[in-house]
Specification:
The chain has about 100 residues and is mostly helical. About 60% of the residues lie in helices and about 0% in strands. It has a single domain, classed as 434 Repressor (Amino-terminal Domain) (Orthogonal Bundle), CATH 1.10.260. Helix 2 packs across helix 3 and helix 2 crosses helix 4. The termini are far apart.
Length: about 100
Amino acid sequence: MLGQQTNDEILVEVGQRLRSYRLQRNITVADLAEQAGLNRNTVLNAEAGRDPRLSTLVAILRVLGRLDALEAFLPTPPISPLQLVKSRAQQRQRASKAKDHG
């Protein structure tokens, strides 16, 4: 369970999962790096769990066809009932008359 692991252990787990997805798609590190616009060592470091940048993860997930993983990882927060009421109150209910500029 990830909740019991340290940050470093989670990064290693993420790296292992990235590597597994890459291997399932039969993509070499070099090919992934080229398609993602990354350096080969950047991909290797990400797969080793060496604290990849978020932009690196996004680029890798895009090539692996796994951007959906980001949606599952961090879904759009629901609008609270209070925010919904406030947003409706701020919406214009009618158009105003045009002012004469003459």
